[in-house]
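wait is this the right file?? whatever heres the structure
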């Protein structure tokens, strides 16, 4: 199987360990989100409580991602990933115990969200930065696509596993605290396995040179580097602005399900699963293609196809048509996002890659901000208009960036003729 081009990067032992560890960590995260949401709502009966728990994770993630980028370029990437995952595993184990004995309260989830958001965001730049150092440049697109596929697969199966386990462990008069506590214990075991696999890496990911500047100077250097390099700045903006409009379909899916197709939880689950499958297929197709030519032009074609799929989705009113075009939207969005990430890694020098990846992480966290005006449009007009507006803005923003950064569509020619430090 490893000789197949689809799984080419998995022939590399260190990447194989990273990939399996990523599978475990992604499933743990998705399962924990469902189990945590179930128990928080059971305790509080408040949708707003779920929002506060989500924000407790997102806000520290945005703040500490930049710190994680600086640390990634200053210390061993392997050690950074290992110790942050170990702390995450221990925290989940403690939460499992407190939940099982019935001592957990709403505020425990807030504190846990802050801690996990900070720890996870510190390790994320290292997790992405180590991949180009482990695999060859020719296999980088394949490796990144396979790494993204772990998240897509876990987003489909993780919630199902967590929900099924909660249902099984809740039978026979067992209360929610005990059943969710058992699920948290299983999740902690999966996260400990992910941590153990990282410890087996042969590559340590040491920085190229010893740090000679302060952390703040390193952070400023990273921001200044991106500002001066048109190709990298263009890739980051292309990954931020159009994606912010494109991903609005994910956040508005519950409203579309209820207001347009008059669906219930079952229909929402089917719509979500359909988009998850589309995203998974998108990452696997990119993995199969690998390091193909004309990546820059392909990015813009993918954005315009993404826009068209969202526009058609916006005007549908039937469940099965919505599933079909929702899956296509997720396919193009994931294909584009994975390709954009790979291209950014290709052109970023190793000594500063962690800081650049941290900026990518911050921009990804900022994606939901575009939902605010689109959500307001859905609230005061209708969901069709809001999604059509998102689709139009997706295309317009991509077109504008194409004009502002003409080297983006000529990515292969630009990169081949220059060293990454000169881009």
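ok assuming it is, sequence goes like this
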């Amino acid at each position: 199987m490893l000789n197949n081009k689809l799984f080419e990067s998995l022939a590399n032992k260190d990447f194989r360990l990273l990939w399996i560890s990523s599978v475990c960590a992604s499933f743990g995260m998705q399962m924990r989100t469902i189990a945590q949401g179930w128990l928080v709502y059971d305790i509080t009966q408040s949708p707003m409580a779920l929002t506060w728990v989500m924000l407790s994770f997102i806000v520290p993630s945005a703040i500490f991602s930049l710190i994680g980028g600086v640390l990634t370029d200053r210390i061993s990437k392997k050690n950074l990933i290992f110790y942050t995952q170990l702390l995450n595993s221990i925290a989940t184990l403690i939460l499992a115990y407190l939940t099982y004995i019935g001592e957990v309260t709403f505020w425990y989830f807030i504190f846990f969200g802050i801690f996990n958001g900070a720890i996870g965001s510190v390790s994320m730049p290292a997790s992405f930065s180590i991949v180009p150092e482990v695999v060859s440049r020719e296999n980088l697109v394949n490796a990144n696509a396979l790494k993204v596929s772990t998240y897509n697969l876990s987003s489909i199966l993780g919630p199902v596993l967590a929900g099924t386990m909660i249902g099984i462990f809740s039978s026979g008069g067992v209360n929610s605290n005990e059943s969710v506590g058992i699920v948290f214990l299983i999740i902690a075991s999966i996260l400990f396995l992910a941590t153990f696999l990282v410890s087996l890496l042969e590559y340590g990911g040491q920085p190229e040179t010893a740090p000679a500047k302060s952390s703040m100077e390193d952070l400023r250097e990273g921001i200044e580097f991106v500002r001066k390099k048109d190709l990298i700045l263009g890739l980051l903006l292309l990954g931020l602005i159009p994606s912010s409009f494109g991903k609005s379909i994910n956040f508005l899916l519950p409203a579309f399900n209820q207001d347009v197709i008059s669906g219930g939880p079952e229909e929402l689950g089917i719509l979500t699963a359909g988009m998850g499958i589309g995203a998974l297929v998108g990452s696997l197709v990119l993995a199969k293609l690998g390091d193909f030519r004309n990546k820059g032009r392909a990015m813009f074609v993918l954005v315009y196809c993404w826009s068209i799929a969202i526009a058609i989705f916006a005007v549908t009113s039937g469940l099965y048509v919505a599933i079909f075009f929702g899956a296509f939207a997720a396919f193009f969005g994931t294909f584009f996002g994975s390709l954009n990430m790979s291209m950014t890694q290709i052109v970023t020098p190793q000594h500063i890659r962690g800081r650049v990846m941290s900026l990518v992480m911050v921009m990804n966290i900022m994606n939901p901000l575009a939902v605010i005006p689109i959500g307001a449009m859905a609230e005061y007009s209708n969901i069709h208009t809001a999604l059509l507006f998102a689709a139009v803005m997706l295309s317009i923003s991509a077109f504008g960036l194409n004009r502002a950064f003409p080297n983006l569509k000529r990515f292969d020619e630009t990169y081949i003729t220059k060293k990454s430090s000169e881009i």
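Residues 419-423 have pLDDT under 50 and may be disordered. so i think its the right one actually
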